[in-house]
Amino acid sequence: MTRRPDGPGRAPDGQPPAPAPAGGSFLEMWRELLPLGRHAASRGYRRYAWTGADLDCRAWFADQAAARGLTYEVDRNGNQWAWLGDPEAGDAVVTGSHLDSVPDGGAFDGPLGVVSSFAALDELRARGTDLARPLAVVNFGDEEGARFGLACVGSRLTAGQLTAADAHRLTDADGVSLPRAMEAAGHDPDAIGADPDRLARIGAFVELHVEQGRALDLSGDRVGIASAIWPHGRWRFDFRGEANHAGTTRLVDRRDPMLTYAETVLAARREARLAGAVATFGKISVEPNGVNAIPSLVRGWLDSRAEDQASLDTVVDGIEKAARGHAEAHGVDLDVVRESFTPVVEFDHALRDELGRILGTDTGITVPVLGTGAGHDAGILSGSIPTAMLFVRNPTGVSHSPAEHAAEDDCAAGVLALADVLEGLARR
Ligand SMILES: [Zn+2]
Hints:
Its cofactor is Zn(2+). Allantoate binds at residues 234, 292, 305. This protein is of the alpha/beta class. It has helices at 23-33, 52-67, 111-127, 153-159, 164-168, 178-184, 196-200, 215-219, 257-275, 309-330, 349-363, 377-381, 408-426, and strands at 71-74, 80-84, 92-97, 135-139, 202-210, 223-229, 232-240, 244-245, 278-287, 293-294, 297-305, 333-342, 345-346, 369-372, 387-392. Strands 1, 2, 3, 4, 5, 6, 13, 14 and 15 form a 9-stranded mixed sheet that branches. Strands 9-11-7-12 form a 4-stranded antiparallel sheet, with helices on one face. Helix 3 (111-127) crosses helix 13 (408-426), helix 9 (257-275) packs antiparallel against helix 10 and helix 11 (349-363) crosses helix 13 (408-426). Bound molecules: zinc ion. Residues 98, 109-110, 143, 209, 376 line the site of zinc ion (ZN).
């Protein structure tokens, strides 16, 4: 393994940041990708699945594969692959992420993983690593779900977690169905579906991603390894009271569901804080929604995520209990409906430990292992193949926003960490 002055972990105190030996190809690719799908006014990215901006990004991916002489293919679900070695050989080590974005997303969520993957391949070639396993870079389609409302469509289809029939029913805000959008972009929508043969040829998938939080910033590390994706769910709280005149109804005579809702929001904050979890009421609808009317109905949606199932149960049970107590005090009726739920995703322990060993051997540093509250293609695939993730420091933790950022030196550290991981897993 190539030695270098500084590894993926902690930068030595008071010393300048590490040089970027892999920076050449990374920066060139980064600059090419940067203008694609960027909205002039918001400065955020609008790279929605199968739109012109997405097709530009996909063309960029195909160009990168061609420029390196890699075997390029688009699978039945529209995911793009670039292979170094024989795609049919089996036990492949695959890395990559996604190029689509949320509305007005940042530059890093997704593209950092794809660009780093190509740069890591360049680094391995520069090292002259003798590979015993095929390597591939993948761009999973429609990860963010910004257009059709369901996240990770490309990986879900491949893993058989979304049927072709259900995918065919997805439509965007303009009423364009997913099959029509795929067809317009030149992809056969009748081909989509589970792809177990492809997954059977993959021995490990490693996704590098910008961290969507501040754990690495707080610990002073450049790169971390994912432990798990937190269990998360959405619950709808319907508070029903009595509509009445805002000017003439005495306070004591009111059955005001907005009051109960407000107390529930405070309870959510308190319960989440006590459990070390997160809980958010980010969406609300009010009836009759008049400025001079006491509401008859306040509907609020709770998103909550925690490190483990027991903590999440404690948080949500605590919020519901508080909401029921306040509802009773105000003469308000309450219904709580769980609308969606995703259990904890534990990344493959053996692969995770292997990554820690590979990165630790080179640097003598223990790379931090951290959980995340965000979903990823790696989480979808972890049900089918051994999967791991690397996170790159994000100094503010801001994500899904144009303010999302990772420093150039940290990106270079991420590329080297990924190159080390690929080399450690695939060399002869
Ligand atoms: Zn992402």
